[in-house]
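Example (one chain per record):
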Amino acid sequence: MEHAYGLYTHIRGNQVRSAFLLIGLFFLVYVLVFAGALVAEAFPHGDEDVQFILWRAERDFWPSVPWATAGTVLWIFIAYKFHQSMIDALTGGELVSRTDYPKVWDALENLCISRGIPMPKLKVMDSDALNAFATGMNQSQYSITVTTGLIKALNQDELEAVLGHELTHIRNGDVRLMVIAMVIAGVVSFFGEMIFRMFTNTGVSFRGGSSSSERKGGAGAAILIAIILIVIAWLLSVVVRMALSRSREFLADAGSVELTKNPDAMISALRKIEGRGELRGATSAVMEMCVDNPREGFSNLFDTHPSVDQRVAALVKYAGGHDPGPLALPPPKETPEGEADENTSPASGDTKAGPWSEPAPTETPGPWGDKN
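Predicted structure:
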């Protein structure tokens, strides 16, 4: 199996794609600005022919370019600085420490130490869903968020496999690429909605001049062109996200196996996550960054992730893993206290702190993690 974690060509390719995506973002904004100018000129000049309206729209467009550029730069700056806060507000992810979730913290720390990688921030969101995702634009921002449902459902090996998957996304530059794609989707949606509101708010004056527009068709044709431009911009934003290629998930699975040397753990983790990863309240952009995205597009055409079956088949074929097939999860435990003690600070229980206080501990949390 390809060593995804060392694919420098993939990393360089992501850096190039990031630059092209940013350039493409400005292009899409300019297309939407021109569409807005067409709508703005079509209503007051509904009795003119389409050439005149196009000329008026072009005349309005060029003075608007500096403002559109400044607005886009500001949007990118806000996304760069505050995208993590926005995602946390949507998902409820909270920054945690070793004392909060020692098993998860130690697993992540061990993986980072084994590769000499700076450890990203660890966040946990309270959700029964089984999922995880990585975010960030640079080393100081990188973070990995896991759900409480994932922590409870996966054993230690499976949890390490999922964390290795997300670390690979960070190392390969996939995370930065997905954040930029999310910014593009947000800008296109914002400008598209603004033009739509302009269209609906001025619809009365257009209907008032409908007799002239029926004669010459200038306003109708101009609005039709504007709608086509908006649809093209939206489709391009979707294509951009699809162009990031679903192969990044295969590469992240491969990188996890390279880190953990345990393909079976990655396979069983995927089987447990399969169909159980829906994050309520999360936008489609957030779901696209997750280990698994259960939201399907039209005939799988717009799916951002390959199916779990495809990913498992690749791990079996290239990494020598074994597929147990779809897995049923056991019912939740009646006493969550034991689970809380296993994943949170022992200080919350009535046991004494210290590595020698328990006669036969199942594990000894420490700076170097589990020994299994």
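Caption: The chain has 14 helices and four strands.
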